[in-house]
Automatic annotation (TrEMBL):
It comes from the Bacteria. The gene is gntR_1. Pfam families: FCD, GntR. Residues 2-69 form the HTH gntR-type domain. This is D-xylose utilization operon transcriptional repressor. The keyword Secreted does not apply. InterPro entries: GntR_C, TF_FadR/GntR_C, Tscrpt_reg_HTH_GntR, WH-like_DNA-bd_sf, WH_DNA-bd_sf. Coiled coil: none annotated. It comes from Cupriavidus pampae. Keywords: DNA-binding, Transcription, Transcription regulation.
Length: 242
């Protein structure tokens, strides 16, 4: 995914988290393109990605509209991704990293290090980190060599905020967001180390634990009323879990 398109996707996710769109609101390409100051093409591609992530759904008239979902739905999807990616990491460690996979993962780690060097991140930095993060996770799944596992992860990623980078905009809304990213990227380094050493059990545990960053970001959005101006408006998108 090109950086420009990713930037639009990150911006739209952020607007969703900040409650910019009511449940059922229609999302049309032209108004969104004007709002973001971009052409319609990256908006169209970003909307298609958001549909795949389960955040929006086709509108009966045309285009897309916001959907409503429960916090439990997100929590369950994040937990499932953790277990699936844990299995993928274990398989990679047990099979052994190929030279190409090693180089590709090391390249991701360096990109993440560079993205987090600044004292304060802006949207472009989040885009760079998001691109790296998506690639890092995809490389591990691909490296597992298990096509059924890859399909299961792809299906789970269609649930709201389940995909690897789906929670990153939420981090930008809280003061300690950059610290969480630094922590998450340290986990990337530890996960790579475990896979490189062939430590399957450790790699699985690290990958499963890694999704807790996303879970904690969700809990932050739900539980911090003092951040209502930034985060709580998005709670209109949630319905109370049964």
């Amino acid at each position: 995914m090109e950086s420009h398109q990713t930037r639009v996707l990150v911006q739209l996710r952020d607007l969703i988290l900040k409650g910019e769109f009511e449940p059922g609101a229609r999302l049309a390409e032209i108004p969104l393109a004007e709002k973001l100051g971009v052409s319609r093409t990256p908006v169209r591609l970003a909307l298609a990605s958001l549909e795949q992530e389960g955040l929006i759904e086709p509108s009966p008239s045309s285009g897309y509209m916001m959907r409503r979902f429960t916090p439990r739905e997100i929590q369950d999807a994040i937990a499932v991704r953790g277990h699936l990616e844990g299995m993928a990491a274990r398989l990679v460690a047990e099979h052994g990293l190929s030279r190409q996979l090693t180089l590709d993962l090391q390249d991701c780690l360096r990109e993440g290090d560079r993205a987090l060097m600044k004292a304060q991140l802006d949207y472009d930095d989040y885009v760079a980190y998001s691109n790296m993060n998506d690639r890092f996770h995809a490389l591990i799944v691909e490296g597992s060599g298990n096509s059924a596992l890859a399909r299961a992860i792809e299906l789970n990623n269609r649930l709201p905020f389940a995909a690897a980078s789906a929670m990153l905009p939420m981090q930008s809304a809280v003061e300690e967001g950059q610290q969480w990213l630094v922590y998450a990227h340290r986990q990337h380094h530890s996960l790579f180390d475990a896979m490189q050493r062939g430590e399957g059990t450790r790699a699985q545990a690290l990958a499963t634990e890694h999704v807790n960053v996303a879970r904690l970001n969700l809990e932050t959005a739900l539980d911090r009323p003092e951040q209502a101006s930034q985060v709580m408006p998005a709670m209109r998108l949630f319905v109370t879990a049964a």
